Amino acid sequence: MKIYLVRHGEVPHNVLKQYNTIDEDLNDLGIRQAKELGDKIKNQKFDIIISSPLIRAKHTAYIINVNNAKIIFDDRIKERDCGNLSGKLYEVTNREEYWNYNTTIQYGTSENIKVFFKRVKDFLDDLKNEEYKNVLIVAHSGVSKAFSAYFEGIKDGKFLNRGLKNCEIKIYEL
Is 97 a catalytic residue? Predict the structure, then answer.
Protein backbone atom coordinates (compact mmCIF):
# COMPACT_ATOMS: atom_id res chain seq x y z
CA MET A 1 0.00 0.00 0.00
CA LYS A 2 1.27 3.46 -0.91
CA ILE A 3 0.56 6.22 1.55
CA TYR A 4 0.64 9.80 0.38
CA LEU A 5 0.97 11.97 3.48
CA VAL A 6 0.09 15.65 3.16
CA ARG A 7 0.31 18.40 5.72
CA HIS A 8 -2.56 20.91 5.63
CA GLY A 9 -2.19 24.36 4.09
CA GLU A 10 -1.02 27.37 6.07
CA VAL A 11 -3.11 28.72 8.96
CA PRO A 12 -2.74 31.90 11.02
CA HIS A 13 -0.87 30.22 13.91
CA ASN A 14 1.78 28.98 11.46
CA VAL A 15 2.50 32.58 10.47
CA LEU A 16 2.56 33.76 14.08
CA LYS A 17 4.84 30.84 15.12
CA GLN A 18 2.64 29.89 18.01
CA TYR A 19 1.19 26.78 19.56
CA ASN A 20 -2.49 26.42 18.90
CA THR A 21 -5.32 24.10 19.75
CA ILE A 22 -7.95 26.40 18.29
CA ASP A 23 -9.62 24.63 15.39
CA GLU A 24 -8.82 27.28 12.81
CA ASP A 25 -9.25 27.33 9.06
CA LEU A 26 -6.75 27.90 6.28
CA ASN A 27 -5.66 31.43 5.49
CA ASP A 28 -5.57 32.72 1.88
CA LEU A 29 -2.08 31.33 1.29
CA GLY A 30 -3.15 27.96 2.72
CA ILE A 31 -6.06 27.81 0.27
CA ARG A 32 -3.72 28.62 -2.64
CA GLN A 33 -1.24 25.98 -1.45
CA ALA A 34 -4.00 23.36 -1.34
CA LYS A 35 -5.25 24.29 -4.82
CA GLU A 36 -1.70 24.01 -6.19
CA LEU A 37 -1.28 20.61 -4.54
CA GLY A 38 -4.62 19.43 -5.91
CA ASP A 39 -3.45 20.35 -9.39
CA LYS A 40 -0.13 18.58 -8.80
CA ILE A 41 -1.78 15.28 -7.76
CA LYS A 42 -4.83 15.39 -10.05
CA ASN A 43 -3.64 12.40 -12.09
CA GLN A 44 -3.15 10.17 -9.05
CA LYS A 45 -6.13 8.03 -8.10
CA PHE A 46 -6.70 7.36 -4.40
CA ASP A 47 -8.80 4.54 -2.99
CA ILE A 48 -9.59 6.69 0.02
CA ILE A 49 -8.64 9.94 1.69
CA ILE A 50 -8.20 9.83 5.45
CA SER A 51 -8.07 13.21 7.13
CA SER A 52 -7.65 14.62 10.57
CA PRO A 53 -11.03 16.02 11.65
CA LEU A 54 -9.51 19.44 12.41
CA ILE A 55 -10.84 22.18 10.09
CA ARG A 56 -7.46 23.02 8.53
CA ALA A 57 -6.92 19.39 7.48
CA LYS A 58 -10.55 18.84 6.38
CA HIS A 59 -10.53 21.98 4.24
CA THR A 60 -7.24 20.92 2.65
CA ALA A 61 -8.64 17.43 1.98
CA TYR A 62 -11.75 18.83 0.29
CA ILE A 63 -9.69 21.17 -1.91
CA ILE A 64 -7.16 18.54 -3.05
CA ASN A 65 -9.84 15.89 -3.63
CA VAL A 66 -10.10 16.73 -7.33
CA ASN A 67 -11.17 13.18 -8.25
CA ASN A 68 -13.92 12.95 -5.62
CA ALA A 69 -12.51 10.06 -3.59
CA LYS A 70 -14.32 9.05 -0.42
CA ILE A 71 -13.06 11.03 2.60
CA ILE A 72 -13.15 9.66 6.13
CA PHE A 73 -11.93 11.30 9.33
CA ASP A 74 -9.85 9.77 12.09
CA ASP A 75 -9.16 11.39 15.47
CA ARG A 76 -5.89 9.48 15.81
CA ILE A 77 -4.25 11.73 13.22
CA LYS A 78 -5.14 15.00 14.94
CA GLU A 79 -2.20 17.25 15.78
CA ARG A 80 -0.37 16.78 19.07
CA ASP A 81 -2.40 18.56 21.74
CA CYS A 82 -0.31 21.45 23.04
CA GLY A 83 -2.58 21.91 26.05
CA ASN A 84 -2.07 25.15 27.94
CA LEU A 85 0.67 26.24 25.52
CA SER A 86 -2.12 27.18 23.11
CA GLY A 87 -1.72 30.75 21.89
CA LYS A 88 1.83 31.02 23.21
CA LEU A 89 4.80 31.70 20.96
CA TYR A 90 7.08 28.77 20.18
CA GLU A 91 9.89 30.57 21.99
CA VAL A 92 8.30 29.88 25.41
CA THR A 93 9.65 26.33 25.05
CA ASN A 94 12.84 24.77 23.83
CA ARG A 95 11.36 23.51 20.54
CA GLU A 96 14.18 20.99 20.08
CA GLU A 97 13.29 19.53 23.47
CA TYR A 98 9.52 19.73 22.87
CA TRP A 99 10.01 17.48 19.84
CA ASN A 100 12.62 15.21 21.47
CA TYR A 101 11.27 11.68 21.82
CA ASN A 102 13.66 10.98 24.69
CA THR A 103 12.92 14.11 26.72
CA THR A 104 12.08 14.03 30.39
CA ILE A 105 10.68 17.57 30.28
CA GLN A 106 6.90 18.06 30.35
CA TYR A 107 5.77 21.42 28.97
CA GLY A 108 2.56 22.41 30.72
CA THR A 109 -0.38 20.19 29.86
CA SER A 110 0.84 19.31 26.37
CA GLU A 111 0.35 15.77 25.13
CA ASN A 112 3.37 13.60 25.88
CA ILE A 113 5.31 12.91 22.67
CA LYS A 114 5.44 9.15 23.30
CA VAL A 115 1.68 8.99 23.85
CA PHE A 116 1.16 11.07 20.71
CA PHE A 117 3.47 8.90 18.58
CA LYS A 118 1.73 5.74 19.87
CA ARG A 119 -1.65 7.18 18.83
CA VAL A 120 -0.34 7.64 15.28
CA LYS A 121 1.40 4.23 15.34
CA ASP A 122 -1.91 2.56 16.26
CA PHE A 123 -3.55 4.31 13.30
CA LEU A 124 -0.85 3.02 10.93
CA ASP A 125 -0.94 -0.49 12.38
CA ASP A 126 -4.71 -0.61 11.80
CA LEU A 127 -4.31 0.76 8.27
CA LYS A 128 -2.09 -2.25 7.43
CA ASN A 129 -5.22 -4.43 7.68
CA GLU A 130 -7.00 -2.57 4.89
CA GLU A 131 -6.96 -3.58 1.21
CA TYR A 132 -6.17 -0.13 -0.21
CA LYS A 133 -3.51 0.40 -2.87
CA ASN A 134 -3.22 4.21 -2.67
CA VAL A 135 -4.22 6.20 0.38
CA LEU A 136 -4.05 9.96 0.76
CA ILE A 137 -3.69 11.13 4.36
CA VAL A 138 -4.18 14.78 5.28
CA ALA A 139 -2.81 15.69 8.67
CA HIS A 140 -0.34 17.92 10.48
CA SER A 141 3.35 18.63 11.01
CA GLY A 142 3.44 16.67 14.26
CA VAL A 143 1.71 13.72 12.64
CA SER A 144 4.33 13.79 9.86
CA LYS A 145 7.00 13.60 12.59
CA ALA A 146 5.27 10.53 14.02
CA PHE A 147 5.14 8.99 10.52
CA SER A 148 8.88 9.64 10.26
CA ALA A 149 9.41 7.74 13.53
CA TYR A 150 7.25 4.85 12.30
CA PHE A 151 8.86 4.47 8.88
CA GLU A 152 12.40 5.75 9.46
CA GLY A 153 12.93 4.95 13.13
CA ILE A 154 13.48 7.00 16.26
CA LYS A 155 17.22 7.50 15.51
CA ASP A 156 18.51 10.19 17.91
CA GLY A 157 14.96 11.03 19.04
CA LYS A 158 15.07 14.57 17.63
CA PHE A 159 12.02 15.33 15.51
CA LEU A 160 11.89 19.14 15.31
CA ASN A 161 13.12 19.19 11.70
CA ARG A 162 11.48 15.94 10.56
CA GLY A 163 8.02 17.40 9.83
CA LEU A 164 6.44 18.35 6.52
CA LYS A 165 5.95 21.94 5.40
CA ASN A 166 2.46 23.22 4.56
CA CYS A 167 0.97 21.22 1.65
CA GLU A 168 4.15 19.20 1.25
CA ILE A 169 3.59 15.56 0.30
CA LYS A 170 5.66 12.52 1.22
CA ILE A 171 5.12 8.98 -0.03
CA TYR A 172 5.54 5.90 2.15
CA GLU A 173 5.13 2.19 1.48
CA LEU A 174 3.14 0.36 4.17
Answer: no
